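Pasting two entries for a bug report.
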Amino acid sequence: MNNQHNDSIRCIAYNPVTHLLVSCSSSDFGLWKPEKKSVSKHKTNSKITCCGWTDDGQYLAVGMMNGVMSISNKNGEEKVKIELPGGALSPVWSIAWNPSKYEPNATSVAWNTQCEDMLCFSGNRYLNIKTSNFPVHQQKLQGFVVGYNGSKIFCLHVYAMSAVEVPQSAPMYQYLERKMYKEAYQIACLGVTDSDWRELAMEALEGLDFETAKNAFIRIHDLLYLELINSIEERKKRGETNNELFLADVSAYQGKFHKAAKLYKKTCNDPQALNLYTDLRMLGYSQDFLGSGDPKDTKMLITKQADWAQNMNEPKAAAEMYLSAGEHMKAIEIIGDNGWVDMLIDQARKLDKAEREPLSKCAFFFKKLQHHGYAAETYMKMGYLKSLVLLHVETNHWDEAFEILEKHPQFKDDVYVPYAQWLAENDHFEEAQKAFHRAGRQGEAVKVLEQLTHNTVVESRFNDAPYYYWMLSMQCLDIARENEEKKDEMLKKFHKFQHLAELYHVYHSIQRYTDEPFSSHLQETLFNISRFLLHNLTKDIPLGISSVYTLYALAKQSKALGAYKLARHAYEKLQGQWIPARFQESLELGSLTARSKPFIDSEELVPMCYRCSTNNPLLNDQGNVCINCRQPFIFSASSYESQTLRLDESVDDTEDDPFTAKLSFEQGGSDFVPVVVNKSVLWSMSRRDVLIKRWPKPLQWQYYRSLLPDVSITTCPSCFQMFHSEDYELLVLQHNCCPYCHRPIDESN
């Protein structure tokens, strides 16, 4: 039979099953069927370069110059058309069917543009995905596949195009089954879940493909395994090549502890297996790796067991295990923390005296648990005499401390100084002074009391601060009397501390007025106290004393008593300072009401000088002195009213009665000139009118004359502060001592 083509024949191929011949030319291909004695021709758009039948003879594939592969059935009807990406630049020169597998039901085929080993084809309403030479994965689909990119398959159904997202898990696991980790990673990159990534990472790690495992773990941000891989890579760089040891580490990380232990043992790393089981508290398995009973391993295992017991809140078992392992310090820590005195005593007595550290720890806990006798026994065992002395000092067992001091005088400073401090803290200042003298620490006596005094101020204990400052001043006076070299320095401190004592004594009343809801003081008393304190705050303000509180009290009492000019001045001063929120509303209201009052002060409140009879302003820039004669005002230590006049003794006996004459004072003087009388005049005065401050040396006695004979005045024989007698008696009854210096009332003069 003649089979004529218009162009030259390019290739021919016999059907392997039937007597069917295909001949291909540049523009068509023809099918020769002997039984029909005819040739059917089918046109093509490009030159045919190659052709081939499937093994069952059902399908014919032809390749063309334009990069197109056409698959037709044995009747020549085109079923699938495959176009290569390059088009005419990628001609198909040869074509061959896979001899082992072909898909007779395929109607359309598409290769994955991101993975050359993957293709998909559709047919019989199924989508088939094939990877390499693995079995086909199927899922239902309507239409024809026209493209395959990554994890997306593009399908045409009638006139609608759709993109189908297909998981890549199945082909990834197919590669993993054959331990083809890098290929599985390439598939995973097309799109899989986090759990798939983890499975890939674990499989690659177990297969010792660390690069693939690392990339997979990076995808899921697993820092723990990344650290493991980094550690293994560093070890490989250092020359380690034992893969079984690496696999043991991997198994340990995965929780496959028995497998890890076997691999450690196989690689002669028994200590690592032992550490693994001991860290996991699997004691039964730990025993299998103790080797030949190495004491170090045994001790380590017992110590680990003790650690577990301690973490499991079984301290007694932990302490006993530590003791059996020879870890005395850890055992003593547990025993001491739990207060098991009997065990602590037993351990302290069993320890050798050369074991200083655990014995010292025992002594520490004995002290902490208030068992000072056992602590002393332990120090005696070690021969620590100084620690023993310090123990008696810390526990205030002074008799025992002085008993040791008699035999060992080198500890004088260690005993007398803290003893003196203890006495001072317990208000036994005279005994403290003697103790400091015995220690030769006169300066320290003052320093300790200065610190105590400072603490009372910082803690706002203004009831105690004046007492401490007064005691401090008297100690300075004692030192000045006994030490000529320090006389001037100590006298200067004496006057400073006396002044501070009086300021804090006054400020205590101000503080109680501002902080407490009720005040026991009269308005006049608070008024006088505020004025007195404000006159003494013109320069440096002592620590703890608030000028705001002082001005607040002065403003309130001035307005209440009719001193409106002074009240307005105080409110104006407060406007330039920071005011606590709790005073803000009261101050604003008070300032407003004060401005509505006349700008004058009540004449009843104006202080008069008892020497020159000059009326003084309520607020004096020169302080608590007369503006005319400069006579200092002498105040009652309770009400702070001016009450006496200071005298100086003269040796001149020529005048019979110079006192009245001396009271006269020429107006306008700039310097204070005290009243000076001779002995005869002094003797002629009423004993009741003359008040004497009998200061110890090196100070001189001071004489004062009461100019209000109807007012009874009492002077404390200890601190020499002056009080109205009625006030003093009431305060003594309330406190059972002098309110200023705390002198008990039953104490002799």
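Entry 2 (this is the one that rendered wrong in the viewer):
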Amino acid sequence: MEQDIKLLHGKFSISGKPGKVYNVELTQEYLKFHDANWGKNGDSGGVIDLNDVIGCHIDTSVNKQGNSGPCDCIKSSLVSDRTECLLSVYFCPKKKKRFLSSSYERRHCTLTLGLSQHPDYNVNKGVCENWRRTILNLSNNNNNDKSMSTPTDIESFELPLQRKLLVLINPFSGAGKALQIFQNGVSHMLEEADIFFKMVVTEYAGHATEVMRKLDLSSWYGVVIVSGDGLIYEVINGLMSREDWETAISFPIGCIPGGSGNALCLNINYLAGEPVDVNPILHSTFVLIKHRVIPMDLVLVQTQKQQLFSFLSVTWGLIADIDYESERMRVLGATRFTLYFIKRVLSLRRYRAKISFLPVTPYDPNARNQKNGVQRFSKPRRFSMIRSSLTHNHMSSSVCDSGIHGVYTNNDSQNSIQRFRSKSMPAVKDSDSLNDQTTEDISGLEVHDNVKFDLDETDNCFSSSLPNGNHVNEDNASIGSENAYEEMVHTLNNDGTPIKATLLSPLKEDIPSNWVTIEDEFISACALYQPYLGPDNLTSPESRLNDGQIHLLMIRAGIPKSVLVNLFLSFETGDHVSSPYVEMVKVLAFRLEPMGTEGNIMVDGEHVDYGPIQGQVLPGIARIMGVQ
């Protein structure tokens, strides 16, 4: 079939360019417009990539008031023709940062088209509604078949289902501007995208955990966090503390940077191919609007007193010292990390500990960089989880390529087997309205159409051979065979019992016999499962959101201070992984046993008691709003 077929075309005016008529065409990939008098002193027009479109509205107030409201990029002119219908397209196109540069940033723009082809306003509005419906369908990331669309197909297009988000805002995070960030920019873009939301401003530490523990998840599409990483940590642990944690943890989580760390936002943007060094709020909002729901690994972390669920990292030594002891400089934002790094290097500490781990591939103690030093190994280890039954109030696994729309409701399927990896969940309208909220803090919300998800047993977007659904080319491992892996499988019974740490021995007991132990003096050690640990800190470049692995970074004592400074400067590009002073080992589980009594251990930037700590990966158990 011919590509880029013309689906709609017509003659429109463009706000800000009075007296001109433009030929406008809508194809499968682009919205194109050019002056009808092009070649006769007319301008050439322009092209909008539908992948950049975030929303499309019809201004219904124009016919009553005779003018339109201002748009973000092109000042609207007065509309003298009361039969004209205005169609506004909101989009975020890429713009190169410098001439001949491959890097780019996005801009937030609006194009307003005016249609007065017919003397009856309602006829013009009907035409514009058809354009809007088609633009929204083609620009929706979840529409996998847009390349096959024809003029006949678009007649069956319906408006995408509206989503409703709970937005949690921490007004004290970072420099204290999270509420301002959301109200001044993010909320307007969500409105342009026809996304309903309800704000809840957190009032104290642990507030978000309480909200998520009590929330009626069936009434929401997902939760968006405007804060630093601390509130994300609260939300995840709130979901995992529920009796229905097996399904609750599939509740989609999105984020907007509002703190000093913002590591998850950085990682979502980085893995989506969006810039991480400029205008992170705009780019994070764009990804949030255009997202698909994708799986994310968590790590079950155990200390002597508590069990936690981590999405980012466990840090110890120098990196943890910088994170925790710089809290007094929080008002400086991310700059506090740089200033405290200088202080800590000048008075460098050494820590003795035993670090044990279950490697994915054999550990070679003579090869500091395990990527290059690993032996040929026919069966790398992996860990998978299988859910044995899907009960009522089931919150389905989300999607890979097709995405989901709506909120979670009851699902009657039972006694089915599901590997804990994503499967496509087509959205279907439900005639029942949302139930009233049971949590007082978030009552009084508008009622919207509900959505339920049915298992698509034919979906093959995730293979059955890896926790993240993709074959990983893991250090000379053979690919494509189910027998190429030494797989450890854990079954989730969906009976409300706490999740079991099947790869871990109790902290007071010896480690399993197939683990590796290193006893030495260290400058720092980190268990990482995301690429970025913070701004300008690409700590684990090979990590992915759902690779089913923990990337263990170790820096031993004996490194010269000048080399250490240069090493940390190279964190910005990720080049530190090539240093002979850095060990990067891919593991499924780890244990850290400090031999001293003084130091800091941080879990996702949160301080925990100093002492033995261990963790294991939970592959693809959580769900986030991102692009992959």
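Dev reply: Rendering is fixed now. As a check, the viewer should reflect this: The first helix runs from residue 62 to 65.
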